[in-house]
Q: What sequence folds into this?
């Protein structure tokens, strides 16, 4: 089984998938998400192709811990994904992951369009890594 991490975005959604031992974030891709139904279908295809058994969706909370409209959109997408996939979906606090992703890409000289097309995949990887570390401490 693998675990999938998702960073929901309006234009692009980042998707990261763990290794088989569920200890490391492996591959990461970006799925166009302006058409939510198409994005859902693309993610369901990735779930099947990669034998995913659990999903973690980033929850964009405000810095004070409250939830705004974007968090509600992510919760709704997670609900649709859980219903369509039949897999357990957990929400994961993703505060600052996009900022961290931009910092990582800057350190590696990713700028402009190259960064724009990669930042969501890096953010999904950070969400997944955070969840995997938490899960490892729990066991």
A:
């Amino acid at each position: 089984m693998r675990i999938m991490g998702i960073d929901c975005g309006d234009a692009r959604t980042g998707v990261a998938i763990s290794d088989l031992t569920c200890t490391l974030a492996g591959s990461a891709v970006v799925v166009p998400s302006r058409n939510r139904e198409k994005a859902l279908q693309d993610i369901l295809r990735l779930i099947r192709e990669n034998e995913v058994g659990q999903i973690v969706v980033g929850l964009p909370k405000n810095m004070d811990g409250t939830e705004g409209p974007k968090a509600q959109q992510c919760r709704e997408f997670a609900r649709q994904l859980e219903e369509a996939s039949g897999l357990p979906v957990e929400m994961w606090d993703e505060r600052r992951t996009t900022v961290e992703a931009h910092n990582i890409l800057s350190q590696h000289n990713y700028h402009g369009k190259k960064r724009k097309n990669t930042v969501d995949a890096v953010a999904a990887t950070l969400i997944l890594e955070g969840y995997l570390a938490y899960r490892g401490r729990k066991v």
